[in-house]
Design goal:
The chain has about 280 residues and is mostly helical. It has one domain. It is built from twelve helices and two strands; from the N terminus they run αααααααββααααα. A two-stranded antiparallel ribbon has the order 1-2. A hairpin with a 2-residue loop joins β1 and β2. α2 packs parallel to α5, α8 packs across α9 and α8 packs antiparallel against α10. The longest helix has 27 residues. The chain starts with 16 loop residues before the first helix and ends with a helix.
């Protein structure tokens, strides 16, 4: 974790405990309204990028690597994490220009790990770049990390399940198992993941529709839901980096508070509380 690192004192950067303690937990809070961009310190941004990237990894990988097991980084989820991040950064640089490579890298890592730090007004970027960031808001970081959103491990297993279903359609009698890191997954796990994804999308669509009826435009509504349900922080449109959620009508704030609560508790846990069976034991 970055705590008053001497490196951050270079070029006029005054270290604050808030950005330091909000990096690894992917909290995203800073004592300035302009977030990390207020410090205008490239070195600090690179350091924060590195630790945000670590925060988006599965912490089991951290544990195994610290114990000398470097093979842990060959995990399929970690590889997909790196690939998605690399593709997102490339697309952002392609749309915004390679001269803004640092801003593109920072925002891709910040949004995908659901940290929410900001160094540029990405709400005014090219439409394609904004759609890339919106997609990252839904994908999120690795399972077992401090990040929010759907998580890469779920997307990975769903991709593998889809591939197996296509192979079974071609060869109905074939016995093909869904494998994760060379180990077969139980059908129950796949059902849980499919149910979670359905519930996540259902909540996101329902909340976006309600915000639409409250007068929010499409981009603001869907990004506000994605940012709160995934615990990202800043969204797009009227809730972008240069704005806040303060102007939203009270019913809209209530909806987004529920989204933050549901997203942090991973949906099933929160919704189970309202089930009579849960209280009957």
């Amino acid at each position: 974790m970055i705590v008053n690192s001497p490196a951050l004192c270079l070029k006029g950067f005054v270290p604050d405990s808030e950005p330091s303690f909000a990096t690894m937990p992917t909290g995203g809070f800073t004592p300035t309204t302009a977030s990390i961009g207020a410090y205008a310190n490239p070195l600090a941004e690179y350091i924060i990028m590195f630790f945000m990237f670590l925060a988006g990894m599965n912490f089991i990988i951290h544990y195994r690597v610290l114990r000398g097991n470097w093979k842990a980084i060959k995990c399929e989820e970690f590889r997909l994490y790196v690939i998605i991040l690399a593709v997102a950064i490339f697309l952002l640089l392609l749309s915004q220009g390679f001269s803004l490579y640092r801003e593109g890298m920072f925002q891709a890592i910040s949004v995908m790990t659901t940290t929410g730090f900001v160094t540029a007004d990405f709400g005014s970027w090219h439409f394609g770049a904004r759609m890339v960031l919106l997609t990252l808001m839904f994908i999120g970081a690795c399972g077992g990390s401090t990040g929010g959103a759907i998580k890469i491990v779920r997307f990975l297993t769903l991709m593998k399940h889809t591939r197996v279903m296509m192979r079974r359609a071609i060869s109905p009698k074939a016995v093909i198992a869904v494998k994760y890191d060379q180990k077969p997954l139980q059908e129950g796990i796949m059902r849980d993941i499919i149910s979670f994804l359905f519930l996540y999308i259902l909540v996101a669509v329902a909340a976006s529709i309600v915000l639409g009826f409250l007068g929010l435009d499409f981009e603001t509504a869907i990004s506000a839901v994605a940012a709160t349900l995934g615990n990202v922080g800043p969204g797009l449109g009227g809730v972008g980096p240069n704005f806040s959620y303060a102007w939203l009508p009270d019913p809209g704030k209530v909806i987004l508070i529920l989204c933050m609560w549901l997203g942090r508790l991973e949906l099933f846990t929160a919704i189970m509380i309202f089930s009579p069976r849960f209280w009957k034991g």
